[in-house]
Amino acid sequence: MLKPILDGLWPDIIVDDRQVQDVSGSRRDLTKTLAFRNPSPQLVRALAWNQPFVYVQIGVPRDEEEVLWIGAQ
């Protein structure tokens, strides 16, 4: 699911695979009631369409402490 999305970002957004440090993805059933914390305006518009969509958020890597599945045990 993620590889075609990443491939679509090349070469305009991602020039080299080494630029990508973290990738995560999820699929949600939008027919259920979902709550989003601080949704971006783009996400709000996409949710209003009531159609399947792909939402990509690009930013600086999170600190390991902020990622639930990474960190000291």
TrEMBL record:
Name of this protein: Uncharacterized protein
Species, as recorded: Micromonospora viridifaciens
